[in-house]
Design goal:
The complex is a heterodimer of chains A (139) and B (205).
Chain A lengths: L12 H13 L3 H6 L3 H16 L3 H8 L5 H18 L5 E8 L4 E8 L2 E10 L2 E4 L9
Antiparallel strand pairs in A: 1-2, 2-3, 3-4
Chain B lengths: L10 H6 L42 H27 L4 H23 L18 H14 L3 H24 L5 H28 L1
Helix pairs in contact in B: 2-3, 2-4, 2-5, 3-6, 4-5, 5-6
The chains are: A alpha+beta (139), B mainly alpha (205).
Chain lengths: 139, 205
Amino acid sequence: MVEYATEDSFLQPEKIVNKYYKALYGGDLHCVKSLMTWKSYTMMLESFGLRLSLRDLSFKRQLEKIEEDASLLQEVEKKLSSELLLRNRSPEINIQQIEPNGSERKTVSYKEDGKAKKLYFSKKDDCWLIDYYAGRPVS
Amino acid sequence: MKKNSRRSFLVNSIFAGVGAIGLASCSNDDSDAPIPQNPDTENPQEPDNPDNGGSGLNEEQKDELFFIYQEEKVARDAYITLGEMYPYENTFASIQLAEQRHIDSARGLCETYGVDISGTDEGSVGNFVIDVLQELYNTVIEEGSNSLLDALKMGELIEVTDIKDLDHAINDLGMPDDVVRVYESLREGSYNHLEAFQQAISKES
């Protein structure tokens, strides 16, 4: 489902953080998908789609089946993309620190509108991808 | 299509339909919590094999332990905040204490298996460094602020999700017995919490 070897994926993690936020609140989920592991991407859909799920029963049902039906995934992405655009957010992102975590992981610490945040990255096929499960410090 | 190995987060409860889960196992009641059906009852067992020292889990399992530890904070913080919004509804106050024990248990497993949690911050209520957890928390609080009934439904939703996530951790990851036992105990507590929220919802509806 995820095409890892995109131009975006070869970016360094600190560049990906900015691109991620721009794509997320710009409703460009195709771009967001290219920046994340599949597991993290579905997690993002679930998390950011919760608000919509509570109000739209059909969206909720479609979200349930995204891993089984590519057409439903597209529907979910379309609806969530519109909802994200309606939020009209463009948070200010300031990168604070980039920390290697072993040889295959990195953690980027940054501020989103002044609030401390972190995005974790893992390397897959030489591409850095956002990976929410890569936060555990490894030696 | 690539399969996700984990159906996580609050979406599980949405998918399950809040209130749809049966309450088959609520027998571990030994608490004096002053809420219906003693929801604040779990007494998580400590890992019984502390000598493993990190050698008993693979990398994916350790990642899962670390994530669950971080995720548990969402429930506790949500109940703290909703409890402050609705101080006359004691379900939130009672269950937030149990949720702290969930965090303690998840932390204990991390420590047992050598998962470094030194960079995490349990103390800052409502603040999460991971954006998906922050989004979940924000959504729950936003919805819960509409009314007490909505807040109770958010509690119900959180518990259904916890149960599903723990089901996954227990059944799908090949975790060792001591981890499974801790998670089973937490799951039983979540069933009790769920029942408490459902009873409170019935009264409020």
